[in-house]
Every structure is written in C-alpha cells, then in structure tokens.
Amino acid sequence: MRIVRTKDYEEMSRKAAAIISAQVVIKPDCVLGLATGGTPVGIYKNLVNWYKGGDLDFSEVTSVNLDEYRGLPREHKESYWSFMHRNLFDHVNIKPEHINLPDGMNMDADAECARYDKVIESVGGIDLQLLGIGHDGHIGFNEPSNAFDLGTHCVKLTDETIDANQRFFNNRDEVPREAYTMGTRTIMQARKVLMVVSGKDKAEIIKKAFFGPVTPEVPASILQMHPDFTLVADEDALSLL
Fold first, then answer.
1. Are 181 and 162 in contact (CB under 8 A)?
2. Which of 112, 127, 136, 149 is catalytic?
3. Strand, coil or helix: what is 228?
4. For a Cys-Cys bond, which of 7, 17, 95, 212 suits 46, CB 3.0-4.6 Å?
5. Domain assignments of the chain as residue spans, ordered by start
6. Sign of the torsion angle spanned by Cα atoms 58, 64, 67, 71
7. Active site includes 138?
C-alpha cells in the first residue's frame, strides 16, 4: 500500500488525476473503473482540462463504473450515468460504445448482475479502479456485512448511506433504497486500485480500514491485501495516522 499525503482537496484531485492520466498515456486502450460521488469531481475536472489542452486522448479508453442506483432511469439527473456524462464523458472523446454502467432499470437483479460481470470479463478486466470510501468503510455499495461480496450484486443501502446521499436529492424519500454494485472480488481483481479521500470526517475510517484488521465489517480493509493499492488523501483525512 502506498499513501500519498496532500495538502488539500485540490492537490489530492490533481495528484490522483495524474495517476489516471499516466495510465491512459502508458496504455491508451486501458480499462478504467470509475467512481461517482463528491470526491472524484475534482479529478474529472483535471482530466477534462488536460484533454482540452491536448495532453490526453480517451478515444481508445473503455470505462466500467462501480455502481448504479436500481430503479433510477439513466436520464434522472442523479443517476450515475448522468453524473459521469455531466462530469467527464460529455467533455472528452471517449466513444459511447466504450462506456459501461450497470443498468438500473433492469429489475431482474440476477440477470443484470450476471450481464455486468460478463461485460467486465469481456473487456479484459480493469486496469485501474478509482474508489472513494464511505464513513462506514463501504467501497462502491459494498456495505459492512459478515462476508465479502464477490461479483456484481444488488444491495439494500444502509440508513447511513442513504443519509449521506440525501444531499444529492430534494429529500431523503427520493434516495433509492437499492443499487447494483461491483463486488469486492471484482475490485480486488483490478490491476491497480486508486482511492481518494478528503476531509477530517474520514480520518477515523481511514485509520480503521488500513491500520486495523481485515474484516467484511469494514469492506475497504480488504484493500490492505491488494498488490498495487495507492491511497491519495489530504492532511485532514490522514490526521489520525
């Protein structure tokens, strides 16, 4: 595990974006596992700026997203499909046919999860997986439990996750209660994993996840076992280390 300490959110975003851009430059046809939420927004802004400056080319890149709300149409402004297009895809030259997310409107969970696992397998697996971390240690929507989930699966969101995502909706009742997410096995099979964390409110879970026992009660702790894991975090997030 490598830890990159940064001064603030802006530096965290810039350094994480540099790791992703290096992956694209080294392997133009790479497969990027992408994440949503507030933390990666700064990363995507940097990538878009570097693309517009002529420093990056996404024409051969394939993307596979971590997760998607179940039952939320892709056209909804808070779907992860919309998020990714708003923050990255609409501003770079990635090909639409190279963009992959779980289909939140396929209500047959078994069929959709099997389909998405086949998509990830068909593109040759993930070269670099971007992650954030929840206050309870969840990665993607892999919530604390008594076992590590393996492949793509449908999960009922915890009250804590619903509360955290409420800020993106008009009220708590609008937040979907279920989501499709990659499993921890899929994440661990990525050749590289990059996690970004910002803010003092994440300091406790960072200490618990990466300097405590490996346990499915803290899903992110499994990343201690990954052979190429980099944590890029600001001083506040690392303040308890």
1. no
2. 136
3. coil
4. 17
5. 2-196+213-234
6. positive
7. yes
Q: Are 205 and 171 in contact (CB under 8 A)?
A: no
For residue 67, indicate whether it is catalytic.
Answer: yes
**Whole-number Å distance between alpha carbons of 16 and 126:** 17
Exactly one of 68, 112, 127, 143 is catalytic; name it.
Answer: 143
List, in order, residues 6 or more apart from 184 with CB less than 8 Å away: 139, 142, 148, 149, 150, 219, 222
Q: Please confirm, yes or no, whether 8 is among the known catalytic residues.
A: no
pLDDT tens, per residue, the chain with 241 residues = 999 999 999 999 999 999 999 999 999 999 999 999 999 999 999 999 999 999 999 999 999 999 999 999 999 999 999 999 999 999 999 999 999 999 999 999 999 999 999 999 999 999 999 999 999 999 999 999 988 888 999 999 888 888 888 888 888 888 889 999 999 999 999 999 999 999 999 999 999 999 999 999 999 999 999 999 999 999 999 999 9
CATH of the domain spanning 2-196+213-234: 3.40.50.1360
Instruction: Give the C-alpha separation, 173 to 169, whole Å.
Output: 9
Q: Which of 138, 149, 153, 234 is catalytic?
A: 138
